[in-house]
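Tip: read the tokens left to right.
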């Protein structure tokens, strides 16, 4: 991104500075030549108009040929009119106005992008890879998964990975927005872009640099620029209405007063319309601020559409819940001891990647149970986990499989309850039932309750692939009446499409099975530890496991839309007032050009409030 965005902004800014310098020099020479006995004092003005004005006119004419009648078309008409009426000084000021506006836009977009650009610039280009003979310095792009990278004190971590050597802390505030030092010990995760503390740490790369969290954040602006947001198209539509109004007003002033200078003065004030500059700046500012707070806006249209959404649809596991079940109960047969069951099951589960394994191991650790040696372990497809510990054969499976193979156990099994469960057999005898619950996030209830009064959502739905008892339990806990359980990806997609026909929809999910629904919704947000498929389908990605970040995004989108409309409507209102004075003959073309330049600057300064008022913006989002 830095290889493309920075040179583009810099070259555009430099070009406009050259045109501004030529225009200013031409104006100075014009006044000097008027004092001196020079036969044609307008010559410097004509040269400036040719150098700075002709390229702009050609570009605008090409847009008009395509049927794009925007406010910038008034610039071409005003400049041509100034030349026809021999108002060369006004013409050069128009060129100066257009160039200074484009230069300010380039500067403003660079300023709006400064957070991500600073993040990119702090990433090292060379890293220290640990090898058998010591340490070698290699280019960042040559890092492979599994490489051990040494991060010295106060250096930036170049990869996503895990600590394999060393104990210390890292500052992740630049990525997460949280002003804390995060402790690091062997086995803990680290993220690229984090700043190391006082000790040397060795990190094993788990992702390539191009696939790291850092790379995903830095790529935001580059991708956002390739997708022209509809809120900017809204600006074009407003401009398409504003341009004919301005042209009619200018023609009316000319017709009723028979004064062509008033025609020119009206057009000069009307162009270029600030909404065509201010809205894109607001968008880029919002994308930059979101990325600073671990929110990746992949599609900038999210910023326009999210405040209009009236139906919120949520996946359950990993979105409204932690997606990490906890062991809540162990129902044992009379012949077995609870701790004996938990110790043996945990000893076997350390060899499994099943989602419930972590919950069992966590429960064993909490009860201070040491793990036993496992003689053998296997996990045949569909049969659960089987292993031998000492003289006992341990079989961890599910209710359906047990009843298929051992129907006689149906009288021994406890009744089903809300939540998840697994059945334990020891030496082919029923021993216990382990029950689990995937708890709602701490902020889920307040977040859901907050949506209707603060964000004007009319309908909130829970759509999940989980079984009905679990989904119904969460729905009752959150006071949601519209719930759909045991839904396939195709069924989720059908529900989202149906709801979107009635009202704009927000869908939030975190799994691959949510990808179709994310794509079909008006706004799709991928949440938490997403897959690549889910992230590609979503318009925005919440990279921190907190619904508070989703709330921040909703507030940010509303603030973005508000500021963009303020800039557009406010700029047009000021221009219309100035046009009225110009039509009445109180403002000359030269003064009108200077006045419009001031209006443009005011609109762009307002657009930059998201960046310049960073702390105030965050306070507003969290309110």
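Filled-in amino acids:
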């Amino acid at each position: 991104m830095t290889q493309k965005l920075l040179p583009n902004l810099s070259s555009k800014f430099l070009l406009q500075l050259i045109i501004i310098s030529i225009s200013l020099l031409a104006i100075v020479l014009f006044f000097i030549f008027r004092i001196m006995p020079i036969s044609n004092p307008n010559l410097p003005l004509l040269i400036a108009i040719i150098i700075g004005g002709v390229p702009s006119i050609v570009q605008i004419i090409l847009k008009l040929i395509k049927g794009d009648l925007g406010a910038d078309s008034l610039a071409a008409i005003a400049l041509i009119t100034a030349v026809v009426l021999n108002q060369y000084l006004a013409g050069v000021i128009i060129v100066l106005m257009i160039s200074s506006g484009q230069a300010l836009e380039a500067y403003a977009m660079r300023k709006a992008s400064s957070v991500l650009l600073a993040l990119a610039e702090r990433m090292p280009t060379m890293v220290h890879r640990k090898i058998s003979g010591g340490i070698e310095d290699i280019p960042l792009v040559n890092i492979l998964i599994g490489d051990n990278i040494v991060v010295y004190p106060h250096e930036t971590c170049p990869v996503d990975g895990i600590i394999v050597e060393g104990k210390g802390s890292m500052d992740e505030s630049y990525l997460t927005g949280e002003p804390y030092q995060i402790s690091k010990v062997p086995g803990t995760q680290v993220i690229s872009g984090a700043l190391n503390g006082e000790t040397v740490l060795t990190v094993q790369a788990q992702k390539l640099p191009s696939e790291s969290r850092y790379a995903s954040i830095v790529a935001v602006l580059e991708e956002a620029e390739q997708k022209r947001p509809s809120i900017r198209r809204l600006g074009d539509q407003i401009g398409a209405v504003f341009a004919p109004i301005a042209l009619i007003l200018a023609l009316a002033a000319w017709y009723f007063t028979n004064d062509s200078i008033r025609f020119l003065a009206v057009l000069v004030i009307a162009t270029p319309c600030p909404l065509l500059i201010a809205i894109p700046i607001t968008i880029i500012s919002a994308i930059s601020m979101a990325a600073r707070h671990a929110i990746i806006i992949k599609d900038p249209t999210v910023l326009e559409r999210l405040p209009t959404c009236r139906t919120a649809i949520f996946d359950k596991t990993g979105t409204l819940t932690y997606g990490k079940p906890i062991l809540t109960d162990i129902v044992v047969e009379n012949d077995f001891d609870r701790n004996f069951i938990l110790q043996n099951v945990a000893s076997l589960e350390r060899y499994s990647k099943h989602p419930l394994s972590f919950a069992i191991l966590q429960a064993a650790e909490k009860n201070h149970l040491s793990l036993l040696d496992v003689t053998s372990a296997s996990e045949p497809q569909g049969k659960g986990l089987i292993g031998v510990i000492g003289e006992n054969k341990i079989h961890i499976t599910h209710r359906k499989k047990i009843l298929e193979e051992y129907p006689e156990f149906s009288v021994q099994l406890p009744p089903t309850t809300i939540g998840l469960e697994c059945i334990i057999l020891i030496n082919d005898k029923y021993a216990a039932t382990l029950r689990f619950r995937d708890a709602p996030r701490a902020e889920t209830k307040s977040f859901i309750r907050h949506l209707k009064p603060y964000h004007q959502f009319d309908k909130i739905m829970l759509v999940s692939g989980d079984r009905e008892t679990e989904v119904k339990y969460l729905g009752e806990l959150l006071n949601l009446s519209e719930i759909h359980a045991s839904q396939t990806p195709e069924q989720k997609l059908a529900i989202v499409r149906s709801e979107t026909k009635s009202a704009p929809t927000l869908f939030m999910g975190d799994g691959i099975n949510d990808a179709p629904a994310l794509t079909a919704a008006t706004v799709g947000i991928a949440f938490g530890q997403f897959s690549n498929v889910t992230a590609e389908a979503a318009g925005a990605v919440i990279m921190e496991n907190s619904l508070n970040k989703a709330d921040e995004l909703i507030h940010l989108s509303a603030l973005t839309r508000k500021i963009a409309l303020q800039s557009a409507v406010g700029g047009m209102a000021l221009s219309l007032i100035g046009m009225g004075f110009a039509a009445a003959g109180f403002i000359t073309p030269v003064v009108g050009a200077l006045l419009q330049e001031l209006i443009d600057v005011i609109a762009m300064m307002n657009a930059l409030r998201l960046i310049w008022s960073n702390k105030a913006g965050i306070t507003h989002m969290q309110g």
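The mean pLDDT is 79. The first strand starts at residue 126 and ends at 131.
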